[in-house]
Amino acid sequence: MSKQMKSVLKLASVSLFVVSLAACGSSQDSGTDRSTGLGSPLDIVNKGLSQLGYSPDNDGYAYKAVAFPAADQKYIEDELKKPLEDALSKVGDGYVLQVTGHTCSIGPRNAMGGKKGNVWYSTQRAKGVYDALIKAGFPKDQLTYKGVADDELLLDADPRDAENRRVTFKIVPKQ
Asked: pTM of the entire structure?
């Protein structure tokens, strides 16, 4: 798929996400919405967030790459900041935005010999985006980050594919 097509799809996904946030309103009910069957506002917000993500050039990180390119700060500020702020505003106090780093299935999960391991790589990817969000104006107390290695592979991609090397977002209870 071309980069231009991926950009169009990402823009459409962000638009859908914003619409889903509007639909969820400001209700803080944690139960299932029986009238629509969509689930709680948190479920709706996280479903919308599942459409967002980050990886350099939208192609996945290069193998073992963890750096957040300074040039991508504008993408965080122009494309991700507003939908992520909207998501946080829908759930209120007691929740934070979790920035989650991922890897593909290549390499060991944990450090072994001279290899750092996929947990380390995924955590560093998440930390880079976390730092970029703080630079964009997010308060630290509304963010957290973690790496999950290859625990959450994309269903429609080969486990070894670069698309799995990405950063995703989710609203979770404050620890």
From this structure: 0.81
